[in-house]
């Protein structure tokens, strides 16, 4: 077996690729192509696939486990526990508050506080969306609604309604599972 090198000419000459393959002068009969007889490019062009690692990234070994999507959570979100946390935070914060225009800041503060407290329950892969609305109780009617597309097996919500002498608060926490 001998090694031969051929230079490509014509339109492929721009790539300046050298192709190597093994041939045998003693055996003129044809054999089926094997991997050792397939041309191997020296320099890569955009049409060739490289089996090298991408720059700065490691390809996983065969022993390493690949990360797969989980369509069902390992542990379902507890709406009862989240409801207790929301009730405790809202009751404590709004106990002595009278309705005023500063309630918009209070609703933002409550929303952030509720999300932070519920995140401490350590539910992996759940996205939390907290909605808090505070309004005046004096001769008012409020209708709230929401719509979402979600999976009934893994996504859920909980709500809490608070009232005192001058205001009401509606708190809704959505827990949406991220696959």
From TrEMBL:
Residues 1-16 have a biased composition (Basic and acidic residues). Signal peptide: none annotated. It comes from the Eukaryota. InterPro entries: Tctex-1-like, Tctex-1-like_sf. One of its GO terms (cellular component) is cytoplasm. GO terms for molecular function: dynein intermediate chain binding. Residues 1-42 are annotated as: Disordered. GO terms for biological process: microtubule-based movement. It holds the Pfam family Tctex-1. Belongs to the dynein light chain Tctex-type family. This is Dynein light chain Tctex-type 5-A.
């Amino acid at each position: 077996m001998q090694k031969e090198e051929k230079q490509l000419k014509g339109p492929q000459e721009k790539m300046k690729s050298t192709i190597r393959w093994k041939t045998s002068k003693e055996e003129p009969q044809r054999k089926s192509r094997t991997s050792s007889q397939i041309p191997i490019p020296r320099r890569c062009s955009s049409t060739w696939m490289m089996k090298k690692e991408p720059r700065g990234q490691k390809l996983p070994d065969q022993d390493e486990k690949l990360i797969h999507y989980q369509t069902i959570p390992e542990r379902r979100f507890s709406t009862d526990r989240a409801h207790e946390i929301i009730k405790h935070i809202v009751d404590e914060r709004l106990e002595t508050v009278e309705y005023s225009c500063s309630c918009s800041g209070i609703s933002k503060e409550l929303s952030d506080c509720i999300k932070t407290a519920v995140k401490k329950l350590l539910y992996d892969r759940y996205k939390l969306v907290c909605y808090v609305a505070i309004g005046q109780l004096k001769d008012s009617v409020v209708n709230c609604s929401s719509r979402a597309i979600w999976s009934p097996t893994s996504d859920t919500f909980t709500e809490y309604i608070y009232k005192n002498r001058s205001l009401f608060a509606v708190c809704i926490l959505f827990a949406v599972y991220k696959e």
